[in-house]
């Protein structure tokens, strides 16, 4: 399972990229707004900056509500960076846009997926990857990770090539569960990436090795 960073914060992307474990980035209008990125040109400039740091797919979301608008936006976004994945919501207009953009050869991240049926529709329309939103389902008392597992199973059974990306990840346990459920990708906030790194026994172990080494008269 590959890991993507779910952020529009350039500093977080720089720090995450240094670890050598990040294969792509997902953004959305909320994440962009959180970083004070405004307007289409602002979003485009930020995405350019991200592409200079990360040599992988960068998901950029459309804001149009109708299919024609999504298609026009998607075609534009597809020209922004070398490896764009256009994020299209799992709506009727969205499926129409996914089908049209996929016919153009544009890669699609089908976002805001909350059911296996939406994932099946997206796969038929031509989504490159589908993003079930785990945390938002958990938030309303449902089992978000069960949806990831169900989509992964159905796709595998029917030999569907669309990838599954666990999104709306809230904590490191979600990453383990997503990998076990068969997700191809997990897109995670920077804080979760750092939580994945941490283990108190690793920290105390490193400190003890150094202490023992120095006690024996060695310098660092
Ligand atoms: C994924 O592509 C989305 O941008 C993201 O995971 C949404 O997560 P949230 O539910 O924390 O907003």
Overview of this structure, please?
The structure is a single chain. The protein is an alpha/beta fold. It has eleven helices and eight strands. The protein has helices at 10-18, 29-34, 39-53, 67-77, 92-103, 116-125, 134-139, 144-157, 172-181, 190-197, 200-215, and strands at residues 2-6, 22-26, 58-61, 84-89, 108-113, 129-132, 163-166, 185-188. Strands 1-2-3-4-5-6-7-8 form an eight-stranded parallel barrel, surrounded by eight helices. α5 (92-103) packs parallel to α6 (116-125) and α8 packs parallel to α9 (172-181).
Short summary:
This protein has 220 residues and is α/β, with parallel strands linked by helices. It has helices at residues 10-18, 29-34, 39-53, 67-77, 92-103, 116-125, 134-139, 144-157, 172-181, 190-197, 200-215, and strands spanning 2-6, 22-26, 58-61, 84-89, 108-113, 129-132, 163-166, 185-188. The protein has an eight-stranded parallel β-barrel with strand order 1-2-3-4-5-6-7-8, surrounded by eight helices.
Oligomer state equals single chain
How many β-strand stretches?
A: 8
Strand content: 15-25%
Structural class: alpha/beta
User: Which ions, cofactors or small ligands are bound in this entry?
Assistant: erythose-4-phosphate
Mean pLDDT: 97
Q: Describe the strand arrangement of the main beta sheet, using strand numbers.
A: 1-2-3-4-5-6-7-8
SSE layout and pairing:
Blueprint: E1 2-6, H1 10-18, E2 22-26, H2 29-34, H3 39-53, E3 58-61, H4 67-77, E4 84-89, H5 92-103, E5 108-113, H6 116-125, E6 129-132, H7 134-139, H8 144-157, E7 163-166, H9 172-181, E8 185-188, H10 190-197, H11 200-215
Parallel strand pairs: 1-2, 1-8, 2-3, 3-4, 4-5, 5-6, 6-7, 7-8
Helix pairs in contact: 1-3, 4-5, 5-6, 8-9
């Amino acid at each position: 399972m590959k890991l993507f960073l779910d952020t529009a914060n350039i500093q977080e992307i720089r720090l995450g990229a240094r670890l050598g474990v990040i294969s792509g980035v997902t953004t959305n209008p909320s994440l962009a707004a959180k970083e004070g990125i405004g307007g289409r040109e602002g979003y485009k400039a930020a995405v350019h900056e991200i592409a200079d740091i990360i040599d992988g797919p960068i998901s950029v979301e459309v804001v149009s509500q109708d299919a024609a608008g999504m298609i026009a936006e998607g075609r534009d976004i597809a020209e922004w960076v070398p490896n764009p994945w256009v994020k299209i919501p799992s709506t009727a207009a969205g499926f129409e846009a996914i089908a049209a953009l996929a016919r153009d050869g544009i890669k699609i991240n089908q976002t805001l997926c909350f059911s296996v049926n939406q994932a099946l529709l997206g796969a038929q329309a031509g989504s490159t990857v589908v993003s079930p939103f785990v945390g938002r389902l958990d938030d309303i008392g449902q089992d978000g990770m069960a949806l990831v597992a169900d989509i992964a199973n159905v796709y595998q059974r029917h030999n569907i090539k669309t990838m599954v990306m666990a999104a709306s990840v809230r904590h490191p346990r979600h990453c383990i569960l997503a990998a076990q459920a068969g997700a191809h990708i997990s897109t995670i906030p920077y804080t979760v990436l750092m939580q994945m790194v941490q283990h108190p026994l690793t920290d105390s172990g490193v400190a003890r090795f150094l202490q023992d080494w120095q006690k024996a008269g060695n310098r660092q």
